[in-house]
Amino acid sequence: DAGVIQSPRHEVTEMGQEVTLRCKPISGHDYLFWYRQTMMRGLELLIYFNNNVPIDDSGMPEDRFSAKMPNASFSTLKIQPSEPRDSAVYFCASSPLQGGEQFFGPGTRLTVL
Amino acid sequence: AQSVSQHNHHVILSEAASLELGCNYSYGGTVNLFWYVQYPGQHLQLLLKYFSGDPLVKGIKGFEAEFIKSKFSFNLRKPSVQWSDTAEYFCAVTSLGSQGNLIFGKGTKLSVKP
Predict the structure, then answer these.
(1) Which of A84, A3, A102, A33 is nearest to B47 (CA)?
(2) Which residue does chain A place closest to B92, by CA atoms?
(3) How far apart are the first and last CA of chain A?
(4) Helix (H) or strand (E) holding B95
(5) How many whole angstroms separate alpha carbon A33 and alpha carbon B53?
(6) Structure confidence at residue A2 (pLDDT)
(7) What's the mean per-residue pLDDT of chain A?
(8) Residue A81 to chain B, least CA–CA distance (Å)
(9) Which residues of chain B does A58 touch, with a Cβ-Cβ cutoff of 8 Å?
């Protein structure tokens, strides 16, 4: 199994631009999670899905952030417009079980200038 | 609300020293417990997990953790650390009544001096 796949691995953009991060979970995993990691705030859960349905988006910072999961094998996290304070590493994780182990992707390092 | 506390922000040890990282959680029901490790520049990887049974859990790379229900603790231990153990360690908890998300601690950065 290839594990959780994220793209791009690195993204550098300018303030105001739209950014789209992509995630392919492990096949058969019903849960998908988006996290953000920064030095100041640590690891934060942004949103998670169960069977493609968003369950909890209370961690999404503001309306500039949106996430979708159109099918079981693909999810996107979009930031529009991006701001320098959005610079962080964004991780996607998937899990086969409620409350089970989460498998993390390699992350996308986002830099907003 | 559930929370996870990791007592040490940064621990510095010499090689061969023993390690214990503290983790306490605030949920009184049945829980699943995890320790993840993040090596510099990499993603989180599972070190070990506890769901039920023997409260002393052994994980990869010589790590172990002990679940003490009465203390709401799940401390991570290793008898002798190596330079390659330099990483950040995260404790995480989920309850059986939750929808599926993990609650992570803030992490403990471990630096091992050669």
Answers:
(1) A102
(2) A101
(3) 36
(4) strand B87-95
(5) 28
(6) 80
(7) 94
(8) 26
(9) none
Burial (CB < 10 A; 0-12, 13-18, 19+), residue A101, is middle
pLDDT for res B29: 80
Q: Could you report how far apart the first and last alpha carbons of chain B are, in Å?
A: 41
For residue B108, what is the nearest residue in chain A, using CA coordinates?
A42
> How is residue A40 written in tokens?
């100041």
Q: What separation in angstroms does the CA of B95 have from each of A78, B65, B106? A: 30, 18, 18
pLDDT in tens, A40-86: 888 889 999 999 999 989 899 889 999 999 999 999 999 999 999 99
Q: Measured between CB atoms, does A33 come within 8 Å of chain B?
A: yes
Instruction: Judge whether A91 is closer than 8 Å to chain B, CB to CB.
Output: yes
Q: What are phi and psi of B62, to 5 degrees?
A: 80, 5
- Whether the predicted pLDDT of A91 surpasses 80: yes
What is the pLDDT, as a whole number, of residue B71? 94
> What pLDDT, in 10s, does the model give residues B9-40?
999 999 999 999 999 999 878 889 999 999 99
Nearest residue of chain A to residue B51 (CA atoms): A100
Nearest to A98 among B49, B99, B106 (CB): B99
User: A108 CB near a chain B CB, below 8 Å?
Assistant: no
**CB pair distance less than 8 Å for B95 and A45:** no
